[in-house]
Design goal:
Two copies of one chain form a homodimer. By secondary structure, chain A is mainly alpha-helical. The first copy, chain A, contains 20 helices and three strands. Chain A has a three-stranded mixed β-sheet with strand order 1-3-2, sandwiched between helices. In chain A, strand 2 and strand 3 form a beta hairpin.
């Protein structure tokens, strides 16, 4: 940061951003509590609290004073050309570009809409929980319909040169276009069903017929995080209906998991997954770093976030060498696991089901393609909300060969749409692509992740990620980050290569 | 509320108060999380979050706009004499009086001081936790010294015609004077040590030599709350280092407990206690009531609050008929309890110890007298913070005949001073007095609480409290409430009568 006179503009803007981040983290704390502790009766008031904070945040991020602070910082930047290095000037410019973009978006939105969306998110979440418990989509449909309308209105007010869905996807995948997404997904649309057919031709592993006590699962999760170096003084683990990771402060990282009856590995793999998210957040610029409260201190996209969670879940916890180290612990916990192959096979059922979160790496992509197509249809192609359950079930039958027993197992399974998070699901699949492509780069740099797992020393893996990926923040967008780390544009090939190799090895077991 | 033109001033003020309450409840949610979930590393950022909210709240409660809203409401009140009933006018006037009093207090405080106190509370709490864990008062002394100085400065800025301690006690006990407090405490200063001596002359019950698993204690607590009609959709129970009750929304009531090794009844009695607090909050005017966000919708004093928690802990859970119903449950849980007398005796050890929260009803008052004298000495009589441990231990030796093993068991045992809550402790003992006096009034009205416990039907007890005590809010201050409910001024006699009778019955067992 420059220390001459214009730098006071940078300091003022930085202080302002820090206070915005404080407010945002208060909002996150309310969200955390809502999902982990709050009694259901608290929902309406929590909705009012969140709406109040949303109004405050929107006001802070769209007001004249903030615009002036950014303007003054831009002027300071233009005046500081001789005092700062080129790299620093570029970083400053990137920060300003991102702040200006976000400011324009906030200014484009009617405060009443912002408030209405905050209330609808909170009420929608509560409504979804009840509708899911009752497996009654009808109960949820009015909420969802209202949320679709509010988000469509949001896209209209933003008036970007993008389609409605593209506009809504920007917060999750900055700069992503629908055309680029379809280009990346096209090989998957073709190849994933083929691979599924290949598996279904051969002998198929059956679903697990055993289970573990909740406390036993929790103990295995505790062991996992201990092995992976969890620092209890800055992390916290709780239970919630839907696992998530959230950061409440520069030294306050939280994850949640859940125990699913009949799915003894679900909690364990969810823990690995959410911990991967948390590691990315823990590796972002710390509060002592100059860009901590600036865009460059933030996660660059949900797909990159997901690539980090998927890395720890799939490349580490579902790997064969991991099973070699861990099968004795599962056996000791009472699981009918007699050797590494038993555990590896259990970790990789490669059997399509109705549930996205419990899905294996192969069928996962199909869950996402269905959601992507359906939210595009809801937002841009006039699909009626009422038709969602039947459209959902039809696609599951066609692509995965399964039929949800009810709406709870079908189109009510995910929380996202209840909070109006349209444009979010594709990030999960993009995360698979990015994780695979980054893993290939890691292999070139320090050896394959599986080899580090085999040596039971993940420190080099984490160190490499902490250098190559985590601290970049929003200095690069997702595709730029991938190109920078791997030397190639993002593509679906590394993911398909990885999948094919794994399926081949799994089939060879039989 | 009047519906004519001036009533818009009432509506505007009510809306404003509601938003203030939203912000306050957000602050409470952060406090709840800090005590039940937050990793220790989150403390500094949480302190900044709380300081930000404290600044916002202080600004809202001291700004010109708020003063104008109150002024307009006062004018509307003066103009509305013909449209409203006398009772309603009196309630409106009481609301305005209390709002004006609080406004003047807020306006008297420097915003920097408000912010500094918020930071010092958060840091002090964290520091106290660590110092207590290490039993090292030296680690905590600088925080405490700073907090004493900040609170003395607060009293100076408030500049009320009251002493420093009296000024700081006002938020907990509105209208209480030190002279009145000493008048109420004088009979206790004389009589409690005499009663203790009487007990020590006779055969003494020894401390419990058994314990129960944490999960078993939790199960008994769950049974208790179920018996007492807990509605899980509006209540939540968690663990924290120090038990407390807090309200996060009109339908979101939380309590915490803790398991203390070697004290198998501690968690159970703390649950009863905190539930009593929560019942009072649950009985305050609901969000549909016109006074919900107004002073008349709030708890009137900490002593009244404490009277409600002590009622359920002491008059119900520690009563002999309660032991008659509950001893089989404790026996089934593995406690060495063979009959009602065993449980009743275990619930009422009447053996002085070092710990306030675990104290019996007799020695509890002595714990409070010591704290009251010490905080008066710290704030008004120049006692050095460094001398606190030795002064503490000396008084415990003199009054209770016990010596804390270390500072953790001594002057570090309570959280209050770490957060600068001076003037709070006396409310606990006043709560005993109020509970006893209200219990006598209850006996006259519907029969003694113990008789309802014997019939295993507490509904009449709760209904009576919900009519006579809970909904009054701040319409009456603590002493007015007692006088109104019992027909007599508050006195220590009912409490001493109750204690003497109980001790006599306990001694008769031997």
């Amino acid at each position: 940061m420059t220390r001459d006179v214009p730098s006071s503009a940078w300091t003022s803007l930085g202080d302002y951003l820090r206070e915005t981040q404080l407010l945002g983290s208060i909002q996150s704390t309310l969200y955390w509590d809502q999902n982990t502790r709050m009694p259901s009766g608290g929902a309406a008031w929590r909705g009012e609290q969140l709406a109040l904070l949303a109004r405050q945040l929107h006001a802070r991020q769209s007001c004249e004073r903030y615009a002036a602070l950014i303007g003054e910082a831009r002027q300071a930047w233009q005046a500081s050309s001789e005092q700062t290095s080129e790299a620093e000037r570029l970083a400053q410019a990137r920060n300003l570009d991102l702040l200006e973009q976000e400011l324009h978006r906030q200014q484009a939105l009617d405060p009443d809409l912002v408030s209405a969306i905050a209330v609808a998110k909170s009420e929608g979440y509560e409504c979804w929980q009840q509708a899911k418990a009752a497996s009654a989509f009808d109960q949820f449909a009015p909420s969802l319909k209202r949320m679709v309308a509010l988000r469509q209105e949001q896209a209209r007010q933003l008036a970007e040169p993008r389609s409605c869905w593209e506009t809504l996807a920007q917060p999750f995948e900055p700069d992503l276009t629908l055309a680029r997404l379809q280009e990346l997904f096209a090989p998957l649309r073709q190849r994933l069903p083929e691979l599924l057919g290949q598996l279904q031709g051969g002998p198929r592993p059956t679903a697990l017929s055993w289970d573990l006590e909740a406390a036993t699962q929790q103990d295995l999760c505790d062991q996992l995080l201990k092995c992976w170096g969890r620092d209890e003084s800055i992390t916290c683990v709780a239970a919630s209906p839907h696992p998530f990771s959230i950061t409440l402060g520069p030294r306050d990282f939280r994850i949640t998991t859940r125990v699913v009856a009949g799915q003894p590995l679900s909690c364990f793999l969810a823990t690995a997954h959410e911990w991967g998210h948390s590691l990315y957040e823990q590796g972002l610029p710390p509060s002592s770093h100059q860009w901590f409260a600036w865009p460059l201190g933030q996660a660059t996209s949900m797909a990159v976030h997901e690539s980090q969670s998927l890395f720890w879940e799939n490349r580490v916890a579902r790997s064969q060498p991991f099973a070699e180290h861990w099968w004795p612990r599962f056996a000791a916990a009472g699981a009918p696991i007699a050797n590494a192959i038993d555990l590896w096979r259990a970790m990789n059922p490669m059997a399509p089901g109705c549930n996205r979160v419990e899905a294996d790496e192969l069928s996962y992509g199909l869950h996402i393609l269905i959601r992507t197509d359906l939210e595009l249809a809801l937002l841009e192609q006039g699909l009626e909300v009422e038709a969602l359950p039947s459209e959902w079930n039809r696609r599951y039958g066609e692509l995965l060969g399964v039929t949800p027993a009810d709406d709870a197992e079908g189109c009510l399974q995910d929380v996202h749409w209840s909070e109006g998070l349209f444009g979010y699901f594709p990030s999960y699949l993009l995360g698979h692509l990015i994780s695979a492509q980054i893993s290939e780069a890691m292999e070139t740099a320090i050896g394959a992740p599986e080899e580090h797992v085999r040596r039971d020393d993940l420190q080099p893996v984490l160190s490499w990620l902490r250098e190559a990926v985590h601290p970049i923040g929003r200095a690069l967008n997702a595709e730029q980050l991938v190109a920078s780390v791997t030397g190639r544009p993002l593509s679906s090939e590394p993911f398909l290569r990885y999948l094919e190799s794994k399926i081949e090895r799994l089939l060879a077991l039989s």
